[in-house]
Amino acid sequence: MDQIQHKHIDVRGVNLHVAEIGTGSSVVVFLHGFPEIWYSWRHQMIAIAGAGYRAIAPDLRGYGLSGNHPEPEKASFNDFVDDTIAILDSFHIDKAFLIGKDFGSWPVYLLSLFHPTRVIGVVSLGVPFFVPRPQKFRDLPEGFYISRWKEPGRAEADFSRFDVKTVWRNIYILFSRSEIPIAEKGKEIMDLVDPSNPFPPWLTNEDLTTYAKAYEKSGFSSPMQVPYTRLPEEFTIENPKVEVPVLLIVGGKDYFLKFPGIEDYITSEKVRDYVAELEIEFLPEGTHFMQEQFPDKVNQLIVNFLDKACSIK
């Protein structure tokens, strides 16, 4: 881990922390999800650097060691898109591969739509490209974790009962399960985890401490502005089509597959209507955190995809 270098760059009014490793001419930019930071890509960064690529992973604005959005009420996914372009410009990189997971996949897809000349290819862990529909998940119960976290002050009140390390641990445990986090009436999301619940075996106490320290610095309110607190921007692209090569890696035990319509959308291959060149790989035992759970398998899939794309570009 010591070989990963760290720097800070000023991007659009925010000081961003960026982790970097490798000297290859082909660049790979990683965008994390929640409750993550650059560190969630540590295994992949080291692996692709060893395969001859240059890896760059920022803490997204509002996360980890990066600064907060100066106007949090205006935070949006477009900030992550514009920040990524600014990072590429800062490093004088014309185009790059983009890898995202969880909500980090959405700005990756947006970049491929809005700035296709800057993108060589895309890897998404768990999240296919789909046209956003604001009411897509309205049939889920009232205790659906996203619905709860969109209520002003509700997550803050729930989390305030515990220290940061416990909150982060609980969220990670919840997201590691194969069921959607849904609280019963009169209960909160944190109540879904019992203190005796075991921590996923693929994370060490050192990993937990690293994540906890990052969220002690940022808190949870700033990271949760996007994607939970803020309403999503209106999607205005007609007949969207991702034209760059895409690798979608799906974990069979990722709770996101239980979201209404998602598994059928992937397995029926309707997703191909919106992606011109798509590879789909399944990890049957993979959870929401498959890149930490099965790093060797995920690394090999990514490196194979990168090598193939580089051989034909």
From TrEMBL:
- Looking at the record, the residues that make up the AB hydrolase-1 domain are 27-136
Q: Which Pfam families does the record associate with it?
A: Abhydrolase_1
List UniProt keywords, sorted A-Z.
Hydrolase
GO molecular-function annotation terms? Answer: hydrolase activity
Q: Where is the signal peptide?
A: none
Q: List the PANTHER family hit by this protein, alphabetically.
A: EPOXIDE HYDROLASE
Q: What family classification does the UniProt entry report for this protein?
A: Belongs to the AB hydrolase superfamily. Epoxide hydrolase family.
What protein name does the entry list?
A: Alpha/beta-Hydrolases superfamily protein
Species assigned in the record = Theobroma cacao (Cacao)
